[in-house]
Amino acid sequence: MDTTSKDIMPPGGESQRSIGTRTLIDWALRYNFILIFLLAVGIATSLSSDFLTFGNIANLFQQAAVVGIVAVGMTFVILTANIDLSVGSLSAFAGIVVAVLLQGGMSPWLAVPISLGLGLAAGALMGGITVYGKVPSFIITLAGLVSFRGATFLLSDGSPIGGLPAGFSAIGSAVVPLVPGTALMFPVMGLLFIGVAIVGGLVLRYTVFGEYVLATGGNAEAARLSGVPVRAVSIAVFAISGLLAAFGGILLTSRLHIGQPTSAQGMELDAIAAVVLGGTSLFGGRGGMLGTAVAVMLLQVLRNIFNLVGLGSFYQMTITGVIIVLAILLNRLIDHYAGRT
Questions:
Q1: What is the CATH number of domain 54-336?
Q2: Secondary structure letter of residue 187 according to DSSP
Q3: Does 22 score more than 80 pLDDT?
């Protein structure tokens, strides 16, 4: 009997061809953000021959760095089935704090840690209220969004703060050789984004804390009964988000060379869009840093495309909102396909 054109049936009754097809579909669904990213890169390349030049790629990382760092913190929060709407305002607050301290003559080696510490404490405070007050994180961090922005305007009197030390201001625009001895210069901020994303991914994948984060988001009650310190983990992820939001705000102040009270407006939208588009479920327990990092760059590529075709900023904001909705619907579809709903 000729079997060359027929599928070989394994003991389970499913052909190797159908298994291979299902595996391919599973991979495409799981890593859809990579496929979308490659599609966006292809479109951008067709619109401009300069898109794939090293200089433009380095500039993309420079532009995406602050949002990317904030999005790493947001990933931890969303993985626990919470959300942090305060990150934009907290970034601006941290940026103003460091600017005020530096303008007053304080050393950057002291001003920066103080600003980072305030971000960490603010995040932990919001997490503590959420956990012990049993108030939805949406409400608490929405209050934080308003409060921290107000505190930012109070500290700055609503005006930009300049006169920052040259050494501090240079960090935001500094470049270093990507490969020693070559002329391939890469922005320090881009390297910081890559470094934070790698550290976040390693923590999430290879540490007990990372397992606790996923377990808390997957089923908080089951995790608690299994011995996971759910309350401490929930507070910790908000503290991480606050710390990275402050770090992003400090870098943004360095890049702008001034403390700008209106900076980082809408950053929470960009961070949430990146996290959800990267495959992290808003219902917690599933996702990772690779998806977030790729999605941050995807959003930056899309902005590049929008600029190439002359699309206005208002249209870009609208499309970003649509992207969030489509990403959520796609994730729900993937959950349904995988039998998780």
A1: 1.10.3470
A2: E
A3: no
- Return the structure tokens found at 54: 């090293």
Give whole-number Cα distances, 152 to 108, 124, 339, in Å: 19, 19, 46
Quote helix, strand, coil % in the chain, to nearest 5.
Answer: 70, 0, 25
Element (H, E) at 60: helix 54-79
C-alpha to C-alpha distances, 12 to 4, 8, 19, 27, nearest whole angstrom: 20, 11, 11, 21
Locate the domains of the chain by residue range: 54-336
Name 101's Cβ contacts closer than 8 Å, sequence gap at least 6: 110, 111, 114, 115
pTM of the shown model: 0.88
Q: Which residue has the tokens 């499913």?
A: 14
- pLDDT on residue 282: 85
C-alpha closest to that of 77 among 68, 67, 87:
87
Residue 105, amino acid: G
Gap between the Cα atoms of 255 and 267, Å rounded? 16
Question: CA-to-CA distance for 269 and 47, rounded, in angstroms?
Answer: 27
Percent of the chain with pLDDT over 70: 88
pLDDT of residue 11: 52
- pLDDT tens per residue, range 209-261: 999 999 999 999 999 999 999 999 999 999 999 999 999 999 999 999 999 99
